[in-house]
Write a structure and sequence with these properties.
InterPro entries: DNA-bd_dom_put_sf (IPR009061), MerR-type_HTH_dom (IPR000551), MerR_fam (IPR047057)
Number of strands: 2
Organism: Micromonospora pisi
Structural class: mainly alpha
Protein name: DNA-binding transcriptional MerR regulator
Distance between the termini: 55 Å
Pfam family, one: MerR_1
Number of helices: 5
Keywords: Coiled coil, DNA-binding
Shape: flat
């Protein structure tokens, strides 16, 4: 698929996809005429990049960590990972992600409780 197709399927602008290529976290194929082409796995990779960025990782960290995440998905327990330079930074990001998960879980429970309370009120009226 071409860059426009990948952009449409992921919701990521072509300009941003070219940036991902520039920083080394997305690797398109080049056709004989020089156009970028992407296989189906590029969709999952772009979505994973977006999730990691939303979690607070930098593109540099993503470039270092992404091969490890892919190796773990393909071969669980695999130690086929390059060395991550900024382990402390990665630990900080992990702690940040865990805090966000805690907040999201509390918010989810509060919303469930709220809806349950209102459903009970609606049933009695």
């Amino acid at each position: 698929m071409k860059i426009g197709d990948l952009a449409a399927r992921t919701g990521v602008a072509p300009r941003l996809l070219r940036y991902y290529e520039q920083v080394g976290i997305l690797h398109p194929f080049r056709s004989s005429n020089g156009y970028r082409t992407y296989g189906e796995p590029a969709i999952d990779r772009v979505l994973q990049i977006r999730e990691l960025l939303e979690a607070g990782l930098t593109t540099e960290m993503i470039r270092e960590v992404l091969p490890c995440l892919e190796a773990e998905t393909e071969r669980p327990g695999s130690r086929h990972c390059p060395t991550v330079k900024d382990l402390d930074g990665l630990r900080r990001q992990l702690a940040r992600i865990e805090r966000r998960i805690d907040v999201l879980q509390r918010n989810r429970q509060a919303i469930k409780n709220y809806l349950s309370a209102w459903e009970g009120v609606e049933a009695t009226t």
